[in-house]
Each structure stands twice: as C-alpha cells, then as structure tokens.
From TrEMBL:
Every F-BAR domain range: 33-332
Keywords attached to this entry: Coiled coil
Keyword Endoplasmic reticulum tagged: no
Record's compositionally biased regions (Basic and acidic residues): 198-215
Chain intervals for the UniProt region annotation (Disordered): 198-223
Alphabetized Pfam families for the sequence: FCH
InterPro entries recorded: AH/BAR_dom_sf, F_BAR_dom, FCH_dom, SLIT-ROBO_RhoGAP
Name of the protein described by the UniProt record: F-BAR domain-containing protein
Amino acid sequence: MFLGSGRRAETRVSRVTWLAFAHSLTSLFCLVAEIRAQLLEQLKCLDQQSEARVQLLQDLQDFFRKKSEIEMDYSKNLEKLAERFMAKTRSAKDHLQFKKDQNILSPVNCWYLLLNQVRRESKDHTTLSDIYLNNIIPRFAQVSDDSVRLFKKSKEIGGQLHEDLMKVLNELYTVMKTYHMYNADCISAEGKLKEAEKQEEKQIGRSVKQDDRMLGRSPDPAANIRFEEKHQRRSSVRKIEKMKEKVKKTMEATLQTIQDMVTVEDFDVADCFQYTNSTESVKSTLSETFMSKPSIAKRRANQQETEQFYFTKLKEYFEGRNLITKLQAKHDLLQKTLGESTNYF
C-alpha cells in the first residue's frame, strides 16, 4: 500500500518536473533565437548605414564636380563678355582720354572699373572651380574611404562580440538542460528518500533520524577554502576593473586625437582669392593646397595608425567588460548558493 502511494507521488513529481523543464528550455530557446535575430539586425543596420554614407558622399562628389564645370563655364563666359566690351571700348575715341585722365572720375573710368570687376569675378569663379575639383572632391573621397574602413572594423568587432555572446548563450542552454536533468533526478531521489524514511520511522522509530541530524551539524571543513577562493576572485575583479578604466581613458584620449587630426587640417582657401595675383599665380597657389602637399601620405599613415590603436583599445575594453560581467554573475551565484551576506564581501 505504501509502495503504491509512493509510486503515484513520484509519478506526479516527475510529471511536474518534466513540464517545468520543458517550459524553461522552450523559453530559453525562444530567447536565444530572439537575441540572435536582434544581433543579425544590428549588423544589417550597420551595413545599411555604411552604404547610405558612401552613397551620400558619392552624390556630394558628383554635385561638386558638376558645380565645378558650371563655375568654369560661367568664368569663361564672363571673360568673353569683358573682352568683347573691352575691345569695343578700345576702338572708341574716349580710350585715349582715359589713358590721360585715369585718376579723374568719369563715365569712361567707371566703365573700365566695371569691366575690371567682371574680370576679377571671372578669375574668382575659375579659382572656385579649381577648389571644388582639386580640394573638396578629393576630401570627400578621402572621407568615403575612411568611412568604409571604419565601418568594416566596427563590423568585425561587433561580429566577434556577437559570436562570444552566442557562445555564452549556447553554453547556458546546455548547462540549463543538464541542470534540469540532474534536478529531475534529484527530486525523484528525494521523493524516494522521504518514502524510505517514512518506512524506516515506522519500523525502528525516530532514534536513527535524530542521530543523522546531529551528524549533519558538524562544521564544514571547506569553509576556509571557500573564503580563500572568494578573496582571490575579489582581487581578480578589482584588477580587471582597474585595467578596464585604464583602457577606457586611453581609448578616449585616442579618439580625441583622431578628431583633432581630422578637424585641424581643414581647408583655408582665403589666399586663393587675392585680387593682386594673376591667373598663373592663383593656379600655383592652388597647387600648394592641403590635398597636394607631400606630407599628406604621412598624415594619412599616422591617422590610420591612430585608428588601429583606438580600435584595439576599444576591443580590449569590450572584452574586459564582458569578463567582469561573467565573473560578477558567477560571484553572485556562488554567494547566493553559499547563503552568505553581501556585506561580508
């Protein structure tokens, strides 16, 4: 009779345990699938941002290239206009009078000033066209190359972090599956043990059970070992936190250096619009601008080296933060399992 009731109780416990086990694994499986979908969506959004950025920069290059052509055509038309009316004015009788009385205000002098102003405007538009073609467009191309390279490195770091996260989730799924299996066996064994204890109590009384309880109160010999392990774990967490803080400061300083390198070398084309220069001197001034300096290759190399250093520190920062999170989670779990107070740590 007692054996029959014990089997029925064991069957009920096993059924409840199995349902809880199946529900937990199903929930975890759905959660892992959702996280995987979110991670893939993040990488997809990063690719879309990269493509949109590159396309925008390409459109800007096409825009300024077309604008450069328009400025050049406009400059040529202004030059033709000035030359045509200048030739017409030279054939007039007032031209000789203009040479004699250049310092006297007169309609002829105003006319010559207007034509000279048109010529200067033509040179300005030529200079502006050259700036668009030789300065702004190459700078947009440089920014496009930098964007592609930085997006690629960001995607590599993000992909590696996603792989590490999925690895942890898969390990968690395996551990939970194993845990539920052992937990089910443990619950089943506890049910059998309780049933056996009831049978034993009815046969030989409660003396044996009391002796077992007294033996169970003996001090734990592994307490000192656990304390030492906790102390070592605490020291490791503190060292990693200090390392993470140092890496973070270095990373911020490197990022500021990259920003300074990009912003400090902007174009200054004010000298290109000096009216005292001839067309040849203006073109020679343009040939010495930022994009055509010999040191551009050296600056680009320094920029890429600084970017590589920044991404290395960024990767170390993320890896250190993940390690701290894992150690803290293990510590909290051990602390909860051992039943110790949080103030003790």
